[in-house]
Amino acid sequence: MSGAILFLNRWPLYEDERRWENRLAAPEIVFRPEADRVTYICDEGGRSGVPADAERVHLVTDFGDLDGVLQLVDAVVRDEGPFDHVIGFSENLLDLAATLRERYGIPGSSPEETSRLRDKTVMKETVSRAGIRVPRWAPCRTEDQVLAAAEEFGYPVIVKPVRGASSQGVRKIASAEELRALCAERSLRDLEIEEFVRGEILHVDGVLDAAGKPLFLCTSRYVSSCLDFELVGEPLGSVFQTESAVRARCEDFAVRCLTALGLRSSAFHLELFDTGEELVFLEVGARVPGADVPYVIHDVHGVNLFRLWVDVLLGRLVDPPAPDPEASGGWLIIPGPKPLPRKVTSATSLVGEVPYLYRELVPRTGEVLVSRPGSYATLQGGRFLFRGGTQEQIEEAVRQVRAQYRLTTEPVP
User: Fold this and answer.
1) Secondary structure class of 230 (helix, strand, coil)
2) 219, 173, 154: which is closest to 391 by C-alpha?
3) Are 193 and 153 in contact (CB under 8 A)?
4) Are 165 and 91 a contacting pair, CB within 8 Å?
5) d(CA 225, CA 238)
């Protein structure tokens, strides 16, 4: 028996068979009914992601209402007994999971440990103390202090939430005038300012064991960037890197960063800059990567990062996966048109037309595209998965989809 598990879930599962998001994280896949006694805490959106026959399911109105959640969990603990594990896959539930562990004396990442992986100022301070290059940064306090930091770093600068994901709320500021306007329009309390680093952005994804040693690593190079996707509507994707020197350099760097942060028994998604002269730490999340990264990893390498993470958390014996280092794959998301909502009048299907494109999610005629900020794993303007070719062939396939895909829409009355 692995013990009693409290599973926090805000992710839905869709009846629409076209959609694959969250399916690898389904409880039926990551848990073992014969060994795992699972109690579910979910919001209304996450209810469809809980098995229909689950016996211990409790609904919260809003995971952001900490007092309400704690009141509910207190009652659940009184009724069902203590828990041995608290698990939540969403970035937005990591702090809550840590709070619950501390409250009930459950092993696992504590609030202090989680803060190193959630608070971007703490994160960079910790990595920097290990002698690893990070962007110059400062917490935002007053307008004068922020303007002085920008003058020191040089424009443009990046201003972002201290805790956040998916580039939500991130601003690229080009001048002192623009920075003053930002200071006038909102509180600076939860923001940081940092140097704009010029270079390509890569990400390293994987799972660490209880000793902090990697069980699986995969290095990818972004197509565009998360920031350009959010700010200017550039398509976003990435391609697995197969050149051994690139992979070794990035993965060694990533492990150094993760060791400095003390991460153990966790999935991770680490982003870094390659300036051509050096690697620079960008940030890391202590969770499975977002967008379509985990699905292409599963389809190319046969590794379910969610399942591997749970196996590590529950102390199960794990045989490290042995992926093919020569196998590449990739993904691409086309953003929806703005402003939303808009109704689709036509969309180009490209499966069978572009080599190595094996799955797509394109809107159907008549579907209405609506805004869902903070998540890449939604319908979007189009989503495309690639596998089966070399790195260069996958990169060319991504370019072909970008060139050939057409989406037309009209305003919703």
Assistant:
1) helix
2) 219
3) yes
4) yes
5) 9
Count CB neighbours of 95 within 10 A: 17
Give pLDDT, residue 1: 47
Torsion of CA 175, 176, 178, 183, to 10 degrees: 150
Pairwise CA distance, residues 99 & 339, whole Å: 38
Token pair for 352:
């069978």
Phi, psi of 227 (to 5 degrees): -65, -45
Q: Distances from the Cα of 252 to the Cαs of 116, 214, 303, 387, in angstroms? A: 20, 11, 21, 25
Cis, peptide link before residue 214, omega less than 30° from 0: no
* Ramachandran angles phi, psi of 236, nearest 5°: -125, 140
Write out pLDDT tens, residues 99-133. 999 999 999 999 989 988 988 999 999 999 999 99
Flag the least confident range among 243-257, 277-291, 366-380.
366-380
pLDDT band at residue 189, thresholds of 50, 70 and 90? confident
Which run of H or E residues covers position 295? helix 293-301
What tokens appear for 140 in the block?
Answer: 């935002």
Determine the Cα–Cα distance for residues 367 and 361; give it in Å rounded to an integer.
12
Identity at 175, one-letter amino acid code: S
- Token pair 């010029």 in the structure block, residue: 198
Work out whether the CA dihedral 99, 102, 104, 105 comes out positive or negative: positive
Tokens 């003053």 locate to 180
Question: What tokens does 108 get?
Answer: 């696992």
- Rounded Cα–Cα distance for residues 313 and 300 (Å): 24
The total of other beta-carbon atoms located within 10 Å of residue 413's CB is 4
Q: What confidence category does residue 217 fall into, taking pLDDT thresholds of 50, 70 and 90?
A: very high
Q: What is the mean pLDDT of residues 208-225?
A: 94
d(CA 32, CA 283): 33
SS3 call for 43:
coil
Q: Which of 120, 149, 191 is nearest to 128 (CA)?
A: 120
Query: In what side-by-side order are the strands of the sheet with 171-173?
Result: 137-139, 191-195, 157-161, 171-173
User: What does the alpha-carbon distance between residue 133 and residue 119 come to, in Å, rounded to a whole number?
Assistant: 18
315 Cα distance to chain centroid:
24
Structural element, H or E, at residue 177: helix 176-185
Short-list 224, 204, 217, 167, CA closest to 281 = 204
Helical axes 293-301 vs 305-313, angle rounded to 10° = 90
